[in-house]
Amino acid sequence: MAILLPVNNTGDRIFSIILGKHMIKIRTYFNRVIGYWLADFYVEMDKPILLGATLKTGNNILGIKSSLERQYGHIHMTNSAQGVSSLGTTAQMVWLSNQEVKKSQN
After folding, report:
1. Other C-beta atoms within 10 Å of 106: how many?
2. CA 72, 77, 80, 83 torsion-angle sign
3. In which band, very low, low, confident or very high, does the pLDDT at 65 lie, cut at 50, 70 and 90?
4. How far apart (Å, rounded) are the C-alpha atoms in residues 20 and 7?
5. What number of other Cβ atoms are within 10 A of residue 21's Cβ?
């Protein structure tokens, strides 16, 4: 089952969520230089697994490293988070397990 992650555009924000078998901490923040929202992803004991990921559509954000995709699944944006008011309104973040992605490809 796809999970809609609780992102919004209230500024630099950190939240934790259980995705599959893992507790993931996600920090979202707006970069005014490039005009996009970015995210940092952490696991146990605040260990960073991915920092500064631009929240754009088209790819699995965790797919930048195949080991992250295998272990934590897929995180996609419904639209690119471009512009300060986009995150949580026109641009939503969605998590899918690897099993769900495999089923949809068949």
Report:
1. 4
2. negative
3. confident
4. 18
5. 9
